[in-house]
Amino acid sequence: MIPIIFIHNQNSDYLPLSLWQARKSNPETEVILIGDSENAHFKHLVTHVDKRQYLKRADEFAKKFVNFSTNSHDFELICLQRWFILEEFLRQNNIEKCLYLDSDILLFGNVKSEIHRFRFFGMTIAGISGHSNYINDIEVLSEFCQYIEKAYESPEAISILEEKYKVFRETHEAGGISDMTFFVEFKEEFPDHIIDIGILIQGKMYDISMNYIEYMHNTGGIKIVNHSKNGEVFLRHAKHPLINMQTLHFQGDTKVHMKRHLFTYSFALDVIYYSNKLYILYQKAWKKTLGKFFR
């Protein structure tokens, strides 16, 4: 079994879109959402798993974590914790391989054939991010988790991170030390462990981000993509013919464009999508009023 796995906290209006597209593009593949009580209602769409069962190592890491980023402490922490959660989930369920996706990604490629293409590498990244990560070797994922832990294991290690952050801020207005930092360094140290699939390989590519438009035909700040009748997605590149896109990544503000990039209308999806938007309003109202009495 090569499942497609998402890890998501709470609820989001775009979450059913990524889950739906993963199922649609790979109907014979199990789609798993490792989440919490606020997104447990998606158990009728995919396999929902309570992340609390897989937090042992992530919770231990949280005690050591120091935030060196303009992003919030909680945001950067969960971005790192997810790799510990994923490894723990895979090991406890005897799963050797999977595709991990961020929940703002629409998947169009076939997981079984694609993971075989990258079989000589333990993991994949797109650009500098693990948002489209084929785990071909769980031991490489384990090494990566250990690599992160080591970076926070002592005051001396923390000092090194603090200095890296100072250097980073000299040329960047926002951001800082994140899991992307460790993916880049891990790949530099172990180039045979990770392959970048955010570049053109055998006519196919995984989207770094829809607003990353260098050399791409674009409009409104996002890539222009074309959809074929067989479900494939293509884009035009200034230096190449049509590129077969295996994913589209709607980072940040581009999430508002996700729904129209599903390309085909589905009444069932509309019911799920708009019902979830109403449910989000209910969840917010509950937290604001009655939720404080049930903590």
Q: Order of strands in the sheet with the most strands?
A: 3-2-1-4-7
Q: Please give the radius of gyration in angstroms.
A: 19 Å
* Helix content percent band: 25-40%
Mean pLDDT: 95
What does this structure look like?
With about 300 residues, the protein is of the alpha/beta class. The protein has 8 helices and 14 strands. A 5-stranded mixed beta sheet has the order 3-2-1-4-7. Strands 5, 9, 12, 13 and 14 form a 5-stranded mixed beta sheet that branches. The two termini are about 40 Å apart.
What's this entry about, in short?
The protein has 295 residues and is an alpha/beta fold.
Offer a few descriptive terms:
295 residues; 14 strands; 5-stranded mixed beta sheet; alpha/beta
What's the structural blueprint in terms of helices and strands?
Elements: E1 4-7, H1 15-25, E2 31-35, E3 47-50, H2 56-62, H3 73-92, E4 98-101, E5 105-107, H4 111-117, E6 123-125, E7 132-135, H5 138-150, H6 155-169, H7 179-189, E8 194-196, E9 204-206, E10 218-219, E11 222-223, E12 225-227, E13 233-237, E14 240-249, H8 267-288
Parallel strand pairs: 1-2, 1-4, 2-3, 6-8, 9-14
Antiparallel strand pairs: 4-7, 5-14, 10-11, 12-13, 13-14
Helix pairs in contact: 2-3, 3-5
